[in-house]
Amino acid sequence: MRVALFATCVNDAVLPRAAIATVRLLERLGVEVDFPEQQSCCGQPQFNTGYRLLTEPLVLRMARVFETYPYVVTPSGSCAAMVRDNYPRIGAKARAEDRGEELAEAAASLAPRVVELTEFLVDVLGVTDVGAHFPHRVTYHPSCHGLRVLGLGTRPLALLRAVKDLELLELPGAEECCGFGGTFAVKNPDVSAAMGADKVAAALSTGAQVLCGADNSCLLHLDGMVRRRHAPLRTVHLAEILAATETTPWRPGSPA
Amino acid sequence: MTSRDAILDRIRAALAAAPEPEPVVRDYRVAHVPVDDHAAVVDLLAGNLADYRAHVHRCTEPELPGLLARLLADHGSRSVAVPPGLPASWLAQADGVERVPDDAEAPLTAQRLDGVDSVVTGCRLAIAETGTLVLDAGPGQGRRVLTLVPDHHVCVVDTARQVVASLPQALPRLDPTRPLTWISGPSATSDIELDRVEGVHGPRTLDVVLLA
Amino acid sequence: MSSAYLGMPAFPQAAKAATQDARLRANLRRATHTIRDKRARAVGELDDWAALREAGRRIKDQTLRHLDVYLLQLEERVTSAGGTVHWAADAAEANRIVAELVRATGESEVVKVKSMATQEIGLNEALAEAGVTAYETDLAELIVQLGDDLPSHILVPAIHRNRGEIRDIFVERMARWGRPAPEGLTDRPADLAEAARLHLREKFLRAKVAVSGANFMIAETGTLVVVESEGNGRMCLTLPQTLISVVGIEKVLPTWQDLEVFLQFLPRSSTAERMNPYTTMWTGLGPGGAADGDGPRAFHLVLLDNGRTDTLADEIGRQVLRCIRCSACLNVCPVYERAGGHAYGSPYPGPIGAVLTPQLRGTGSEVDASLPFASSLCGACYEVCPVAIDIPEVLVHLREQVAAQPGHAAERAAMRAATWLFEHPAALAAAERTASATRALHPRTLPLGPAGAWTQARDLPRLPAEPFRTWWKRHRAEPPAAPQSTGTSQPPTTPQPPTTPESTP
Ligand code: SF4
After folding, report:
1. Which single residue of A30, C232, C319, C411 has CA 20 to 30 Å from C459?
2. d(CA C381, ligand 1 centre) in Å
3. d(Cα A86, Cα C393) in Å, to the nearest integer?
4. pLDDT tens string B147-191
5. pTM of the complete model
6. CATH entry, A137-243, from 3.90.1150.30, 3.40.50.1860, 3.40.640.10, 3.40.50.970
7. What ipTM was assigned to the predicted interfaces of this complex?
8. The A167-169 sheet, strands edge to edge
9. A-contacting chains (≥3 CB pairs under 8 Å)
């Protein structure tokens, strides 16, 4: 099986470890991974801040770049949700504004093929035990878009439970937003920080060493809060945990 | 142009291009319990009433006057408001309790009712799933004020004929032109820290008699 | 809207103060978390919740699509049952109508049942100007009124107050408005409720005029429905001689049967009860007219537009008119929980306020323009909304309107630059490489602008040694590692003919 990786702009530029881990994990599972280099960003920041028209070229680009792949796998719930939930809206609005069918068609063609990493593993590949090894205490924060828009449900937890030597600790108030919310974090910094602080406190209360998530934008925000308060906690993307094995263990600072 | 016409015009203009929405589909349940098991439905009513702090009592027709007398005595009531059409036998054993009848010729004022300890009524029907009594100001129930101002309400439900399982079963049996009061437990509030406490303006004690 | 809200600061400024108020944070957290869990249990009792929700959504959409027809039907039924229907295009007109109706009775005081519509139009202030005192009778409204405060929650307007604060308000203020608080009043909720009972009873017994709203109006029958808990609603709807109900035009439902849907999910969504203690339904003056001695002898219904028809004209925004004001969305909202209700600058706080207020009032003022951004778009509100209002969708839609207003030039330029960069992956790659190469020079905090807002509470991310693209190029050049056979099931490895995506250079 050959799939395209949609790395997402945040992972590409700021947190490449999750994308690298995704490649290693999928290749280990026998999936042929391609990274079409003309990809960039799904347009979520523009769209969610109110700049729909500036999102449109990116919708067309995404559809063009990933045109030939049966699956476009992305290690980001919010970017998958952007394509699946909002691209059709962008298409419908353009149509309602009499600006043609191009965007609606692009959305209709791409949206069903974009899958979040845990969906791809569990639903398409049919695996929950990916042969990973991660001897640490972990708690999992299900980011909102994965939880509520995509309905990832228990997939991430099932994958984590199958990881050898991983101790999974339940995060109190797990379903509560961490307060990132894209430009919300800078437009409403005080509320965002209050939410982030509560999330970090909840994670610390579990005694976990690792706060795991499947959406690096949320982890970016939480990691910034963790480091600001020098808390004994690391934020690690789920893909990195699943990519770790006994022979190639996860190491802080290592590429993957 | 009147505001009426202006508002109607604005509504029509706003909807000029709006598509017809999907039709209403009522595929929710008619009831959440087996409706043919009447005893279970009555038990559910009793449980839900009690859950919201109504005091539930069961009795047969011959036992009713004795039970009502006891409930009034237990509450320390010295007077009871009597709606028109309440069977005279119901209060036959309430010795020493002043009957304060309401009738069309001499309706009781709210001020007068404020000095009455209790009221005894029937009801139009009761809804098991929600623990609700519905009064429609019919015979044996009286004007709405009667069950509002006295601090103690005793409501008698004829379980054979007046208990339904659910809202979808209740609404078709009610006459919307009548003033309806739905009562689910004594008055309560969630206004202090979003936690429920019983007892504000309506009757603080609600006794429900399930008549077999 | 009410003058009480004039000149409110933008949401982020108002919220900042709230996030620093430890007592407020504790009050809100306690209350919203209590009700959150209870709501989930109450909803969980109904295994057909999804079907009820879908039916509710469609009933409301059908109603809104033919709103003119249903309003005319309602008017006809209410009138033929002895009521009088008035139409108010805006707040000023509604206030004028009510003030004149009260004046015509010769009374100088009214008792009020909690009503969002009358708060929205600032009726109490308008009546005060006309020399009429309005007494709020809902416990939480009473707390707000006595405390000279503003409501902060739809259902529990005094949610920002804890029991101790409520006790203090009662002890200090009740005497000014009527019967003083009992000697030695404690902060036990039951004692506080008793104090309210005693304080208000004399007002109920002497009131000649009441003002209410309504939760539902049934077009088919002309019936109005008020859902409440305490019995103050029954008092106001039953005892006075004149009843004036001010109701938004979107509160109409087509049929009597529709109540079987809405009365199942309103109480469960709002107070987490199977059914609220009291519901009153009345049709005009009832079958006996004014003569039967049951309830008011005159009934006036004031139908309120006040921005609703503008909302109705917006294809995406009109779904907000489905709202039944249950406040479930407030109780699950993490932003509301931390910012408090006052930051929303209107009687409609929380997620529903963030989508309703900018539609009713427009986005001209600072606070109104900031409301669509007062959300992390987490979607918890949409999940619990019994009429399935996609609040995040409406928020983003309204953000688009705000972003098109003047004053967003810098943000638009930044967004445009981002789109340009994302449209030119070669330039993007170069920018990423430069950023990574100079990462040692980047500070952990920045003083100004969006980055300054970010680093108020968080460190900036450390940039990687190289972007993913650079790693990928090297990885591509490596010989492929043999796939490891692991796990509980064999992944399908169907070979596929190699395709060259046109985008690969
Ligand atoms: S938007 Fe939905 S959840 Fe919020 S108050 Fe309205 S009906 Fe309730």
Report:
1. C411
2. 8
3. 9
4. 999 999 999 999 999 999 999 999 999 999 999 999 999 998 888
5. 0.93
6. 3.40.50.1860
7. 0.97
8. A167-169, A137-141, A210-213, A234-237
9. C
